[in-house]
Design brief:
about 250 residues, two-stranded antiparallel ribbon, mainly alpha, 4 strands
């Protein structure tokens, strides 16, 4: 809990649930295109969620929560979410750092949050709204390992997508730009996810009135997709449409 925003921490975020999230699988593995992900990656999978819930019933979680409440380190809101004092969070992170466990638990935080944060389509906005303060805070928690960097980039990408949909353009640019840079470094310039991030940043730039920067990115995405996927591939055509919208504006 020490890495999340101190308020409105959902129980699902802090249980030891492996990599199974609300969607029933790690969101990092989802395919993306032009600032959007395939719908199958944001579908709820009730069976998997039920199995994850059953597997966590006997993990001692409730006893741990009760102990924290007994010491007044933790409070539970009427909506069932947790709240932790900022000083308790800071002291916990310092203890983890002193005992060389900070990176381990940071990666767990990123994995759980990435597994839960859905794509930015309108139908997911209510759930994304509940998680968004925690996702924004993830900017300050860059992990070290390549696998966790991939999850971190996907989390920031989807959070940027949600911010863009809600009209919070400056935050959308900040989140998606970090995701783009990490993916360029970890995945390479021509990877599908990297191109999706570039497209997302381009869209955010155009909405923010940064036309030249938006045009530069969208041209790169379009030309790369023409070369690697073909001129008639749906992703290429979407890139052409995004570039045309910049010229139209």
């Amino acid at each position: 809990m020490s890495f999340f925003d101190r308020q409105s921490i959902l129980e699902v975020l802090v249980r030891n649930r492996g990599e199974i999230g609300k969607s029933g699988k790690s969101q990092e593995d989802g395919d993306e295109h032009d600032g959007r992900e395939d719908e199958e990656d944001s579908e709820d999978n009730g069976d998997n969620e039920d199995k994850a819930s059953e597997g966590s019933k006997d993990d001692g979680f409730e006893d741990d929560v009760q102990m924290l409440r007994d010491y007044s380190f933790l409070s539970v809101g009427t909506d069932g979410t947790f709240e932790l004092h900022a000083l308790v969070q800071l002291a916990t992170r310092k203890w983890l750092e002193a005992n060389k466990q900070l990176e381990q638990w940071k990666q767990c935080y990123i994995r759980n949050l990435s597994a839960e944060f859905l794509t930015g389509e309108y139908e997911n906005w209510t759930y994304c709204y509940a998680l968004f303060p925690h996702a924004k805070l993830a900017i300050t928690q860059q992990p070290k390992t390549e696998g966790s960097l991939r999850e971190w980039a996907s989390l920031l990408y989807r959070a940027g997508w949600y911010a863009w949909g809600k009209g919070n353009i400056n935050v959308a640019i900040e989140l998606s730009d970090i995701a783009m840079k990490v993916r360029k470094k970890v995945l390479g310039q021509e990877h599908k996810k990297t191109l999706s991030s570039m497209g997302m940043v381009g869209i955010a730039y155009s909405l923010g009135g940064r036309w030249k920067e938006a045009e530069k990115l969208q041209v790169q995405v379009m030309e790369t997709r023409k070369r690697t996927q073909g001129e008639e591939h749906p992703d290429t055509l979407s890139s052409i449409a995004d570039l045309a919208s910049i010229y139209r504006d």
